[in-house]
Amino acid sequence: QKMQADMEKTQAELQEKEYTATAGGGVVSATVDGKHTLKALTIDPEAVDPEDVEMLQDMVIAAVNSALKAAETSREESMAKVTGGLNFGC
Asked: What is the pLDDT of residue 55?
């Protein structure tokens, strides 16, 4: 029962955390929360090249995916600490 309470507390805390990642040498930055919701997206104006919109799109995708991966990795590590490495399908 204590483990379940600890898991619920950890999950709630993880949902509130934010994770930021960049792409293109930092010209694109994406922030997501633990619920995998995109909270912020910053694009340096120098990254906006009307001749190469595809590159900007790729950088946005890379930044968002990296931030989501960081959130997932943090969740997995935190839950492993609570459960002692047991897998409950979360």
From this structure: 94
CA distance 71 to 11: 12
Cα separation, 60 vs 50, in Å, equals: 15
CB neighbour burial string for 24-35, b if at least 16 within 10 angstroms, e if fewer: beebbbbbbbbe
Q: 85 CB contacts (<8 Å, ≥6 apart)?
A: none
Looking at residue 68, its pLDDT comes to: 95
Alpha-carbon distances of 57 from 8, 23, 43, 49, 67, rounded to whole Å: 36, 11, 11, 11, 16
Per-residue pLDDT tens digits for 58-82: 999 999 999 999 999 988 888 888 7
CA distance 23 to 61: 9
| The model's pTM | 0.77
Distance (Å, whole) CA 10 – CA 15: 9
